[in-house]
Write a structure and sequence with these properties.
The chain is of the alpha/beta class. The protein contains ten helices and five strands, in the order H-H-E-H-H-E-H-E-H-H-E-H-E-H-H. Strand 4, helix 8 and strand 5 form a beta-alpha-beta unit.
Amino acid sequence: MKKALRYFLALLLLSFAAAGYVLWSIGNADSWESSIRKFEAEDLAHPPKLGAILFVGSSSINFWHTLARDMEPLNVINRGFGGSQIAHVNHYAGRIVLPYRPRAIVLYAGDNDLSWPWSKSPQTVLNDFTRFVAIVHTGLPETWIYYISIKPCPARWSNWATVQQANRMIAEFASGQERVQFIDVTPPMLDAHGKVRGDLFRWDGLHLNSRGYALWTSIIKPILLERFPAEKTAAQAQGR
């Protein structure tokens, strides 16, 4: 019995160690190198059109498989990668942001930053976003940057107060910048009692389902079309 117990405890410790390594790895920018190389290989095989609207950030962008169709007639590029954080997007901006010379960038990140086990502060998230804006506008001063507010979700509802604080700080910063706009997706994601709507999420309570993405599309697309109406006009001229 003692031998079996020692064996079980050893396995448990190994499991915790493995889980800790995986979490550490995800929190390390270098862990996304393979994802970035896939993007670069895709760009070589099928060079994207310069001047498109770039969507970049974490899994909420990565899993938006209907993005191109949802945003028609806007020309968009999806460069979301896994459980990335704003600092990771900054780290790879020279490879998956600036080379496309996008007319606009739509960023969704910060969700993972604030959550366990990284649990960064709202100030750190703001600092990282400030750095993102500086990186983009140093290389592409005419490019618009849109920040999608960090979403409420069932799986991380206990962290909602911290998320709200980060959103307020980023919205205030954006309001004082040229060519930076905060897009607040929060109000329609909450019910009449101020609780997050579970019907917008997959089974994990973290990632959006098709209804959730439809909601985001209804908020984000009109904002982009208002700023870039030429693409809408061109599509209408072609009878689309």
